[in-house]
From TrEMBL, chain A:
InterPro entries: AA_ABC_transptr_permease_3TM (IPR010065), ArtM/GltK/GlnP/TcyL/YhdX-like (IPR043429), MetI-like (IPR000515), MetI-like_sf (IPR035906). GO terms for cellular component: ATP-binding cassette (ABC) transporter complex. Residues 20-208 form the ABC transmembrane type-1 domain. Gene3D superfamilies: MetI-like. CDD domains: TM_PBP2. It comes from Siculibacillus lacustris. Pfam families: BPD_transp_1. This is Putative glutamine transport system permease protein GlnP. Part of the binding-protein-dependent transport system for glutamine; probably responsible for the translocation of the substrate across the membrane. GO terms for biological process: amino acid transport. PROSITE patterns: ABC_TM1.
From TrEMBL, chain B:
GO terms for cellular component: plasma membrane. GO terms for molecular function: ABC-type amino acid transporter activity; ATP binding; ATP hydrolysis activity. It is found in: Cell membrane. It is a peripheral membrane protein. It comes from the Bacteria. Belongs to the ABC transporter superfamily. Residues 9-251 form the ABC transporter domain. This is Amino acid ABC transporter ATP-binding protein. Keywords: Amino-acid transport, ATP-binding, Cell membrane, Membrane, Nucleotide-binding, Transport. The keyword Cell membrane applies. The keyword Transcription does not apply. InterPro entries: AAA+_ATPase (IPR003593), ABC_ATPase_HisP-typ (IPR030679), ABC_transporter-like_ATP-bd (IPR003439), ABC_transporter-like_CS (IPR017871), MetN_ABC_transporter-like (IPR050086), P-loop_NTPase (IPR027417).
Amino acid sequence: MIATWWEGFEPYVAGFLDASVVVLVLSICSILVSWIFGLLAALGKVSRFRLLRWLSDFYIWFIRGTPTLIQIFIVYFGLPQFGLRLSPFVAGVIALGFNGGAYVAEIIRSGLSAIPRGQTESAEALGMGRSLLMRRIILPQVFRIILPPLTNEAISMLKNTSLLSVITVVELTLYSQTIIATTFRPFEFYIATALIYLVMTSVISQIAAYLERKFARSL
Amino acid sequence: MTADRDALIRIRGLHKSYGPIEVLKGISLDVHQGEVVSIIGASGSGKSTFLRCLNVLEMPQAGRLRFEGFDFDFDENSRHRPTAADLRLLRARIGMVFQSYNLWPHMTVLENVIEAPIRVAGQPLREATANAEALLARIGLVDKRHSYPTRLSGGQQQRVAIVRALAMAPKVMLFDEVTSALDPELVGEVLSLVASLAEDGMTMLLVTHEIGFAREVSTRTLFFDQGLVAEDGPPREVLQDPRSDRLRQFLKRVLHTDVRRDAGHAVDGSAGAQAIEGSAP
Ligand SMILES: Nc1ncnc2c1ncn2[C@@H]1O[C@H](COP(=O)(O)OP(=O)(O)O)[C@@H](O)[C@H]1O
Ligand SMILES: [Mg+2]
């Protein structure tokens, strides 16, 4: 029984591996892009300039209030109308990164506001300048605080890459759909696909748990 | 006002407002090398704001501050307003300790103490470490140097915070109610450390509600009232023989609560007094 199952899978193992690598690369790129957008928006929110604060608020409001799928369509199908034709992969990374950035911005902002005022003051009172105290005193503490929510974001980012199947990025979800179209075994292949996602998200959780333990001794 | 060329700190006409609320209404003061100035006054009278103006954590709207090579004029149109670089240099020369100890929780005790000497004063790691360990030995916490602050009691944390400020070899120390957040039984150890610094001749300004401690340790007492220095003199005169009704009422209120506290715990002024007697030969 198991042997026959396995025989059914075997021809597709290499394809699954390739598709998983695509998911990983997509996730890593989108996560990095989301950190950049998130950091910019978080800084915008605490900016001295009203325009930047307003822009950050609008960005976060728009992203959180609209479906991710529609955001992906806007980037992939909408932008070409303005002459900006992107490959499915690049459009996907930009759309997911832009989407994740809004959530990352909120995480960073709440992390910054969780650091008591006295932490900055005691550093200033010792003669530290803004950039030194940000680098040495504030950001290391913020990083420890935002690590768990950032992990959750990374996991949802990885799962969201499956949405990119609709704009023809050949990642895990689209790959399994193409196999199912010829094998007519949706149950087995979707379960297999789910298990691969599960392994990847669990690895992220484990890495984060390790980092958290490493920092726990000081907090 | 007589020109006082020898003063270590010279303050003239210091004004500080938050929006429409004027918190400091023109304070002038000379502090000499080795003076221990205790500052008392009702909550909201501007004591903390005054200390925070001395190292310019708050930027006053008017007034002058002279200290070592610095001569600032805070007036908006002045060309002698401090720059960001001036402030870093000034603050490196003035130590400040807060009510909430504000140790950095992601660094060990030793890392807390050597951070500013290395990153701000540019000391080599070895020198900064040796100096920090000597200071920690003085307060009996050298064996805790690799602990994180949360593992320490409040009294220990506050003493490390004092040592962290001392590690920059400041010319003046500012203490803002450094025992107010502590459990009563931990107040004594912090006050003895402050008293021993006073004995060493450290110039300091300390805001405190420990009236007994102010009387024993300081060489001069200021009474702040509604943003002005209402009384200024030797602690015995100011505290035993207040000239104004407001100070008399203030002392009555504070001493009353002191008495209540002393009934339960042998702390307060007596702890400071003991520290001094204890360290006398
Ligand atoms: N950052 C601030 N913004 C607005 N008002 C403030 C600020 N800091 C202090 N104040 C006000 O200034 C007054 C004096 O405060 P403070 O100097 O802390 O008094 P004290 O230390 O004598 O209790 C208080 O009325 C307080 O509410
Ligand atoms: Mg105060």
